[in-house]
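Researcher: I'm preparing a figure for a lab meeting and need a structural model of a single chain. I don't have an experimental structure, so a prediction will have to do for now. The sequence is pasted below. Please return the structure as tokens so I can convert it later.
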Amino acid sequence: MVVRSPLFSRARLGRLAAVVALLGCALALWQFVASLPGVDDLTLASPGETWDALVRDRDLLASEAVITLQEVVLGLALAVLLGVGGAVAMHLWRPLRDAAYPLLVASQAIPLVVLAPIFVLAFDYGIGPKLAIVALICFFPIAVNVADGLRAVDPDLVKLVRTLGADRWLALWRVELPSALPYFFSGLRVAASVAVIGAVFGEWAGADRGLGRLVLLANNQLETARVYAGVVVLAAMAVALFGAVAAAERVFCPWRREVAR
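Model: Understood. Here is the structure written out token by token.
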């Protein structure tokens, strides 16, 4: 029997208080460094200046954030399709896994500043290069975690369903993929966090809209407060995506919920 914890349990309030305290310490340190005599406003904007930019440019930031969020979500969806499909293929065909795994690792060592112009040449200046970069970044954690999850399934359990008449594909669908769901969500949490970075790199390589382009232009125009405001929105986007994946994991993997003490 699973005991459901109340919305405002003591443990949750304690975790919330810890988060607020840590955030307050980070803001205080930021303000202290920004107010030092040797720190120029063009180098580091203070939290107050960043907040003023967030309020002043909220419409501009919101419109550009919608573009970046679209690139992140679509690129992440593409990475899920390719990552899960690739992991299943490597799981079913061992020679493919032995050949593809080193290439997966090597793909993560290639700097994005090298790949971004190539993707722009291949897909023009539309949304294509951004999706390709986001998918490339997110593909690795999803594929590796799903492949590990499929290998971690108890082989005796697979043999049991095979003896009951299930073929290889039915055993994969009914036993192995559900067992690998926690591994999938672990990889998806990592991918959701870094997907925003991929979208920003794609916009830096060539774009006419998006938060990444806005931050780059503001930096060139010495609008430091606007740069930090854009970074805050990007960070909030990454945190929101991470939280959405965690919420989805609680829905699709209810057995992983912590039992309230």
